[in-house]
Amino acid sequence: MNKGQRAKTSAKETKIKINDFGKIPYGREAVKKAILDAAEKLLLKKSPNKLTVREIAEAANIKHPLIHRHFGTKDEVIVAVHARNIKKIERKIVKVENLEGNVGTFFEAVKKNKFRQIALSRAMLDGVNPRAIQTQFPVMQRLLELLKKRSDEQNFESEFTPEMMTAIIAAAALGWFLYEPFLLAATGLEDRDQDELQQTVVEILEEIIRKLC
Q: DSSP string spanning 46-112?
């Protein structure tokens, strides 16, 4: 097999792997879902800056003008994909009224959404403006609200603002999700039970909140 044949075979295999969402979607809602599903899968592998409307259309088994009809632009598709995933997290934390004993709820909600972890980190590493992938930050805002509430209730004066504390707590959790295998290997914790380790992470975050908020 020559180089040209190998390239054609490789391209065909790639197309089959991407184009696996099933039959051609019909109807407004089915088409919109197919577009979002396709974009979500592609964003796990590509930066938003490098993703094209035609790639999304091909993966969704639709003609690319349908993307413009239902969403307007590629950027609006990307925002909609992230918004859909953020809502999944929101549903799990919306009833949390106090951080005391509930840091684990936030931790688990974010941990289970692998798309957000991977797609967000890929976009940030590629220098994408955060506001290009989401227009609101409801999970972070909820964490901030609860930190402010705790600070007010405890009448606690800290040298650190609630905004900075929110950013640091989120950074610690996201860092653990993304780099856990490396962190365990580097500190000799590889043989420890994963669930126990994650519970320890939650307890450390709670302790930080108690002492600094």
A: S-TTT--HHHHHHHHTS-THHHHHHTSSHHHHHHHHHHHHHHHHHHHHTT---STTTHHHHHHHHHT
Cα 137 to Cα 65, 82, 93, 133: the distances in Å are 30, 11, 14, 11
Task: At 136, list the tokens.
Answer: 């609101």
CA gap 61, 5 in Å, rounded: 25
**If residue 12 lies in a helix (H) or strand (E), which one and from where to where?**
helix 3-18
Report the amino acid identity of residue 118: I
- Calculate the alpha carbon distances from 114 to 12, 77, 142, 165, 186 in Å: 28, 19, 20, 24, 23
pLDDT tens for the chain, 213 residues long, are 554 554 444 334 334 344 454 688 889 899 999 999 999 999 999 999 999 999 999 999 999 999 999 999 999 999 999 999 999 999 999 889 999 899 999 999 999 999 999 999 999 999 999 999 999 999 999 999 999 999 888 887 888 999 999 999 999 999 999 999 999 999 999 999 999 999 999 999 999 998 887
Q: Is the pTM of this model over 0.85?
A: no
Rounded CA gap, 81 and 155, in Å?
40
